[in-house]
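Standup notes
- DV: blocked on the single-chain target, sequence here:
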Amino acid sequence: MKRDFNEWLSKFKSSISDYTYYVDFEKIYRNVDKLKVELNILNSLIGSKDIENDFQTILIKYPETLECIPLLLAVRSREIFIKDEMNEYLFDFRKMVYSVPEYIDFMRKSGLFDLLQNHIINNLYDYVLGIEVGLDSNGRKNRGGHLMENLVEEYIKKAGYKKDVNYFKEMYLADIEKKWNLDLSAMSGNNVSTKRFDFVIKTDKQVYVIETNFYSGGGSKLNETARSYKMLASESKKVNGVTFIWFTDGLGWISARKNLEETFNEMDTIYNIDDLEHGIIETL
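- DV (later): unblocked, structure below
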């Protein structure tokens, strides 16, 4: 029976976020603890009456404290580019590439000396912990993808498949070809692509290659994804014994519904979470 796209789309979910989606505290604690000693040394600058000389003393005696500086500005990179009226600088905070006075100048002009000297903060460890929480929000998109992978994997297990026996995670095309003696050149642009699938399920008669994603927000990437998976589905039909399956969901698709509908009309094996909940994997 032909499925209705609008009805299918209407069952998309707004979120699949669990408790750990918003902030990965374990990762944050690990990141901050790596700099715990250096941060505690720099804590001596808080409220300093002679902060430039105190910083110079620290820098000469403990040059490794430099590594903390970018994070105090919420920058992940250990290099920071600066252009002022006269010069351009690429400050390296893994090693001293400029003189101590130039690093002092950086601290003063960036506002870090003011932050430390005027007791705006009380403890650099706590301050960096807060920065890490803010930076970690950038990782939510990746965690969202992993949440969908985890959800699909639970249904694969529920259907009776066993990891590394008849279902496999993160397999490249070349590995699939080698393991089951298949020719997937039609799906790889004559071995040009290094495509990796989230899951592969092997049954007696078929190899199912599976992609998963969840989009809570829109963007141009969704249109690109829909087009590329439509093409991949078409290419997979040229290979006997192989079926491409796409599990996707999320209200981000509302803004890209046209491209998704085109793929839906061409692809019988595109499913959402509602399909998973109704046992679609058991029908393989």
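- Follow-up: The mean pLDDT is 92.
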